[in-house]
Fold these 2 entries.
Entry 1:
Amino acid sequence: MITIIHGDDTSASRNFFIDKKDKSSAPVIDEKLTLLDIKQQGSSGGLFEKPEALFVEGFITNSKPGKNLDEIAFYLKKNSKEIDIYFWERKELTKKQLSQFGPAVTVETFKIPKNTFGFLDGLRPESGKRNIEFFHDALSGSSEELLFFMLIRQFRLLLAVSSDSSIDEVKRLAPWQKSKLASQAKSFSGEQLIKIYKKLNDIDLAQKTGGLTMPLRETIDIFLLDI
């Protein structure tokens, strides 16, 4: 069975992938996957044993059109019932990318709820109560960990757009996304954005090192009050 795990909710999709992986001792293969890797894994079981599943990260997203991708897609189409393989991609794939593996593929799509983007797009300075209300509404569909990750990303993009930075993350945005970020960034001064982004990174470091003095949700509440 071919399973493709993707979507813009990277945290949820990653947890699903890891949950499946933790039930197996097979290694995780990156985008350097080859047809030989698949064939070897398919023959790894004993005479009466089912071969272990294969776990692959980033292959579909990072593969350029060509012989390797075409050979693997063709082989998996023909042998989908005999091979157990999980692909995890850190973004949502296109219909064309999904269709190249045939109709037998199982697709697990993890999407970020609309109220998450409503929370991020609505962030404004000196609007603490409103920011917190939007945050708590977004918690109905997303974890505080994911929302914190998205907060860091949002202010990184706002800072980049306001300073005309050409980081890859901005280059990949559609014109309408850049325009919306530019409009939001005007609500903040450059100094405010730098200060906010630094504070978010300080919280992130404290969280990773066990230095937070209160739960992450309450920490975010206080942060939102202060921006």
Note: The longest strand covers residues 2-6.
Entry 2:
Amino acid sequence: MLDWSECSAIERVPGKVSGAWLFKNTRVPARSLFENLQDGARVSDFLEWFPGVTREQVEAVLNHAGRSLDA
């Protein structure tokens, strides 16, 4: 199982957005990235729709998820 606590681009804050994993310093759930990509959005689309999220954060989340495939 993927340990999101090891990804520096996201955080979980009790009581904030029901305790979901969020892009740091935002209220944007990390899962929204995967949902949007699955629905055909591009990373540039996601960044436009969620301006508080940085490209570096998105890359860190995707890289972290990708490492789980190597395990």
Note: The two ends are 10 Å apart (CA to CA).
